[in-house]
Write a structure and sequence with these properties.
about 575 residues, alpha/beta, ABC transporter transmembrane region fold, Rossmann fold, 2 domains, 7-stranded mixed beta sheet, 4-stranded mixed beta sheet, 19 helices, 15 strands
Length: about 575
């Protein structure tokens, strides 16, 4: 891993420990580190116990044997207590870090409408070459993996370093020197088992990295493909009725199986790469079991070492070799952590780019009323949609925006809402309430009460007001279902959803109400009745509509028409329309 990557990974880790929760984070981390160090200390005591225990067996000293059994009982009890609390506090630390990091990413994703602009960027924003795919998966899954593997690998590395420092002195002392004859010259290697362990670990680390390096890219790709498959299945669930009406099951099956095929293809490549790594790791691990006995055997059979010494050497060699081989044993985890970190870094890059871009792109300023002044609207890729548009909506206006499909009417509405970022010019938004009714209202999962009152909290609107609005908007069948929780976008028909949107408008009482094909799923009589209701209940509100239904034009005083043209559609001058008589 390069120095730049390490610095950027530290940039993901550091904020939690400098946040408002830093003392909680530092306290938990300190406790986890302390318990890991105690674990290593207990291992050192167990290593010393092993020498005395086997020596008592060799000398047939029953009293010493019993003493060592009591000693082992105390060490085992301490080990169990430390292991239990180490697990608990480590999980608590990971959970709290994940909660903080998840909240941070959700805030970044939702602030400045980055979630919306990220989806626009995926359609071809030239300023964002590789927008992060599947942000939901990155926040929900990658954050979890990042915190888990960061703690796991960092504590593993700490244990390896402390274990190496603790056992290398033991191995150096117990193994003693080895005299080697090379020709007529005699060479003495002090603490020779330490050098054997170092060379053994270096060879294993080099072999593991050479074999396992492809795992990093394969794990990154696997997470992306898995997320794509989940997204495809969610799309089928969300659009179940449309797919059923089109009888699109065969096409959807082919699409899902194609996505799954890519998952399996990459996973199969990943399995084969992991198999090669397991071959190397297994050979390395099994050889390490017998290797210290083979190397230490000459000194044991020549008399200087006792059985307990030999067992202590074997255990100490295993600890030193394991510490030096941390990279070998953790390589698969490092590969997953690296892939996960790369995905979070690319997600953060996208968010930072969008937040920085927000200051230089089309944005709204405060004004007396919704207005576009010399505004050019572009696609995410930079192609013009609407050229040099000027539109001012005064209080109490009744304005109809017309034009052929695809001419940019909805984009004009998005610009007036202050959410369309691409283009130039000045957009003014008033301090008064502005409310938008799209063709398909958003219905959150939850109680019907929360659904009707959205985006206001359900407690801010009385049940009587909600029931009255539902009755007025021809939804009496829903009046007694306010406490029922459901996915209402799948329970209600398109027409019922649009009528629910009108009920929201009545409850909100906006000063400016924008309706984008808000009656397209309704019959003419119902659409007419709902517009009459708006005019009656919201007499001072401005109504700005996009509608292809000629009957809707009767409820507007002015019409502005968008005419497609090279370089962007042109917004025509206002044309007076005849208003219907006031509702009796």
């Amino acid at each position: 891993m390069t120095h730049r990557f390490t610095a950027r990974a530290w940039g993901l880790i550091k904020p939690y420990f400098t946040s408002n929760l830093r003392w909680q984070a530092i306290g938990l981390l300190t406790a986890v580190v302390a318990l890991n160090l105690i674990t290593v200390y207990v291992d050192v005591l167990l290593n010393e116990f092993q020498r005395e225990f086997f020596n008592s067996l060799e000398s047939r000293d029953y009293a010493e044997f019993r003493h060592q059994l009591w000693r082992f009982s105390g060490l085992a009890a301490a080990f169990i207590v430390v292991a239990a609390y180490k697990f608990y506090l480590t999980q608590l630390f990971e959970m709290r870090w994940r909660a903080w990091l998840t909240a941070r990413y959700i805030d970044g994703w939702l602030s400045q409408r980055a979630y919306y602009r990220l989806e626009l960027a995926a359609t071809g924003n030239a300023s964002l070459d590789a927008p992060a795919d599947n942000p939901d998966q990155r926040i929900a899954e990658d954050v979890r993996l990042f915190t888990e593997f960061t703690v796991f690998l960092s504590m593993g590395l700490l244990n390896a370093v402390v274990t190496l420092g603790s056992f290398i002195a033991i191995l150096w002392t117990v193994s003693g020197p080895l005299t080697v004859m090379l020709g007529a010259n005699e060479f003495t290697i002090p603490g020779y088992m330490v050098w054997v362990a170092v060379l053994y670990a270096i060879a294993g680390s080099w072999l593991t990295h050479a074999i396992g390096r492809p795992l990093i890219g394969l794990n990154f790709q696997q997470q992306k493909l898995e997320a794509d498959l989940r997204y495809g299945m969610v799309r089928v669930r969300e659009n179940a009725e449309s797919i059923a009406l089109y009888h699109g099951e065969v096409t959807e099956r082919a699409s899902l199986l194609d996505r799954f095929g890519r998952v399996i293809s990459n996973y199969w490549t990943l399995i084969k790469a992991q198999k090669r790594l397991i071959w190397a790791q297994s050979f390395y691990g099994q050889l390490a079991v017998i290797f210290p006995f083979v190397v230490a055997a000459p000194r044991y059979f020549n008399g200087p070492l006792k059985l307990g010494d030999l067992m202590q050497i074997s255990n100490a060699f295993g600890q030193v070799q394991s510490a030096l081989s941390w990279f070998v044993d953790a390589y698969s985890s490092v590969a997953i952590w690296k892939a996960t970190t790369d995905r979070l870094l690319s997600f953060e890059d996208s968010l930072q780019h969008l937040h920085a871009e927000a200051g230089t792109m089309l944005h709204a300023v405060e004004g007396a009323s919704p207005a576009l002044r010399g505004v050019r609207l572009d696609t995410p890729g930079g192609a013009p949609i609407v050229a040099d548009a000027t539109l001012v909506v005064a209080a109490g206006d009744r304005l109809l925006l017309t034009g052929p499909s695809g001419s940019g009417k909805s984009t004009v509405f998005r610009a007036l809402a202050g959410i369309w970022p691409y283009g130039s010019g000045v957009i003014e938004r008033p301090a008064g309430k502005v409310f938008f009714l799209p063709q398909k209202p958003y219905l959150p999962i939850g109680t019907l009460r929360a659904c009707v009152s959205y985006p206001a909290p359900p407690d801010d609107v009385s049940d009587d007001a909600i029931r009255s609005a539902l009755r007025d908007c021809r939804l009496p069948q829903l009046v007694d279902r306010l406490d029922e929780s459901s996915a209402w976008d799948r329970r209600l028909s398109p027409g019922e959803q649009q009528r629910l949107g009108f009920a929201r408008a009545l409850l909100t009482c906006p000063h400016w109400l924008f309706l984008d094909e808000a009656t397209s799923a309704l019959d003419e009589a119902t659409g007419k009745a709902l517009y009459e209701l708006l005019i009656e209940r919201l007499p001072d509100a401005a109504l700005i509509s996009i509608a292809h239904d000629p009957s809707i034009a009767r409820f507007h005083r002015l019409r502005r028409h968008l005419t497609p043209a090279d370089g962007g559609a042109r917004l025509g001058d206002a044309v007076a329309l005849e208003m219907p008589p006031a509702a009796s």
